[in-house]
Amino acid sequence: MTEFTITRDPSTIALQGPHGDPAAIVRSLQTHICQAFPGSPPPITLLSGRWSSQLHSNFVLTFSGQPSNNDVLHFRHVLCSPFRPGASILPQRGYTRISIGFVPIIYDAQGNRPTSEALTAELELNDAFKGLRVVSKPQWLRSSFEVHQSRSSVLISFLDEDGSRLSRIAKNPVFMFGAPCVAKVFNSLPLIRQCLRCHKLGHLIEKCNLSANIIICPICGGRHMFNVHASKCLTANLHTDLNCHCPLKCINCVSARLPGKGHLARDLSCPLRKKFRRDTNRTGDSSTEELDRPMVVDQPIPPLTSIPSSQPTNDKQIVFKPTSPKGKSAARIDNTPPPPVSKPLSCAPVYIQTLLAELQRWREVTDPTYFSSLSDVEIKNISDTGHCRAFELGVDLTDLLQSRTNA
Questions:
Q1: Which residue, 251, 171, 258, is CA-closest to 218?
Q2: Are 124 and 172 members of one domain?
Q3: Staple 8 to which of 12, 66, 152, 356, CB 3.0 to 4.6 Å?
C-alpha cells in the first residue's frame, strides 16, 4: 500500500478543523476516479482515508499497491476537490525537504525581503536545482527577522523518488544572492519541554507522572530540593566544606545510558536537547545560525515596530517586515518615560544587604513540602524570616517537629 497526504491552506486550517466522515469522502473520490475511466479500470485504486489527527486537518489517502507519483498526481484536482481551495496532495515516497542555510537576507527599496518567486529564481541559477519537481515553493525558515540579522535559512520541498537529485545537491555548492550556502536534509523536531518536577525532557509539570508532593533534585535525582543538595549528597561525608564539589552528572543522560559528565539535567549544553527545538524556531534541524542560540531561555520579545503583511505563513504566523533593514534603530513608539533606575544593592548598608538577601532566599521557596525535606537541626536553625515564609505556605514548623518526635 502507498499513502499520500492532502494538506490544506493555512488560512483554511485556522478556520476549520477536520470534518466529514472519512469513509464517505473515500467513496465519493472512488466514484469520481471511476467516472474518469468509463469501461476500463483506472490506473490507481483508492482503498481508504483518514484524518491525520483530531486537531490537524490533513487527510491521508491509502492506495493499493505501488502506484507511481505521476499516476496519483494526475488526479490531484479530483483528490483535492472535497477539501476546498488551497489543498494540495503530497506523496510520502520520494518526498524530500531540505534546508539551505546561511542565505543572505536582502531587502528591496521598500524594505521587502525576497518572495518565494525570487527565491525560486535564485535557486534555479544552480544546475542542481534546474528542472526540480517542486512540491512546496521555497520559503524563509523564520517568519520574522531581527534588525541586525543578515543571514537565515530557506526551506524547499520536492520529489526525488530515486534520491539522485538530493545526491546532486549534496555534491555541488549552492549559491544564493552571490554567497555560498549550505544545503542539507531538513528534519522537523518536537518542541522542547522540560518538567520542573522530574526534570525530564518531553513534557511539562502538568503532564508529569510523578505525584505533586514529590520533589526531585536536578543535581542527583534524590527526593529533596536542589538548594539542600550539599547536605543530602550521597558523598556528603567526603565534602570538605558546606558545599558539594562532586563532579557534575546529568540524571537524564545517565537514564539514557549516556556519559552525562560535565553538565546537569537543566543545562543548555545537555546533548539530549538536540532532539528538540526551541520555542522561537518554527522547525528543528535547520542550519547553524538558527541553532547556536539557547534552546530554552529566549530573550523577551520586544514591542512590535514593524508592519504586518496580509499573508500568513505556513505556521499561521503573520510575516513582519523589519522597519530598519539597514540596521538603523527604529523610532520609539511608546512615549511613556522609562522607570527610574534603582540604586544598586551594593550601595546599601551591610545589614540591609543581609536582610534583603534573606528575604529573597525565602521568597524563592514556593513548595510547602520543602520544609518536610529539612532535617530537625535545619528546622531549628531557620531564621524568623523562614518561619514567616513557612507560615505563609501553611506550614507550622513547631507542629512539624512535634510530629516527628511523636513518630
A1: 251
A2: yes
A3: 12
